[in-house]
Sequence to fold (288 residues):
Amino acid sequence: MAFRSRREKLRLILSGGTCVHPGSVYDAISIRIAEDLGFPLGMFGGSVASLAVLGDPDVTLITLTELAEQMRRMSRAAVLPVLVDADHGYGNALNVRRTVQELETSGAAGLTIEDTLLPAAFGEAKAQLISLEEGVGKMKAALDARGDPSLVVMGRTGAASMTSIEDAIRRAKAYEAAGVDALFFTGIKSRAELEAIVAATRLPIVLGGAPDELSAIDYLASRRVRIALQGHAPIAAAMQAVYEVQKALREGTLPKALEGLPSAELTSRVMRDAEVRARSADLLGLKK
Ligand SMILES: O=C([O-])CC(=O)C(=O)O
Ligand SMILES: [Mg+2]
Fold:
């Protein structure tokens, strides 16, 4: 299986004793940069997928085909293991199966399925949850859909910020019993909440955005948190950089006078220029 070693690397993170921050990745360039910098893992958020592919906010407009295609491009460009935010699995439990099949063949190392009701319901300003029973069915569907047992399936709940920490724990325990590989929580507000989760569950924990009180990585590691997200600043920084350069050009700055461009060395590293040259020499009869 071509992607097994990536999945095994993610499994090693989950079974290890430390906590890692993943690099936020969303396309071929960003994954190569994250890999060059030595991140042990990439996180492909639904929000950045929507932004990179559609230019839209995170309101479930992206299709599974688009998400999987973007993942496939990243898998081709780098070998960094990637955890994909598969949202609600793009429909009901049957759609979850399809989602897992598509992301597995696209090279994802792992994926999260969450119990948020998506897309947003009519007339509801606040995010809603599906029932625990439906959530469990989705987790079972995801696990059953794997062709490669090394693909990591995580159960994700945002119940802590939508209903209560008790509800988040109830759901996490049910997903754990269904057989998921790890538990992903968003909306955890304090050490007390994290510790309540740790006491009630056994699986490795992944934290989405968390407050300052939950930022000390050694503390997180000691509480079974194996992956802690740090948001998606890279795509925001890319947006600002493109804005600045386009604005300068639009205002008459000459291309040569532009600031903030990558060095030729960085550009060729990201493009893996040396490999292309070597291949060209071998295969096209060109000089190295
Ligand atoms: O998974 C993450 O990185 C957080 C999230 O839900 C998103 O960005 O869509
Ligand atoms: Mg998301």
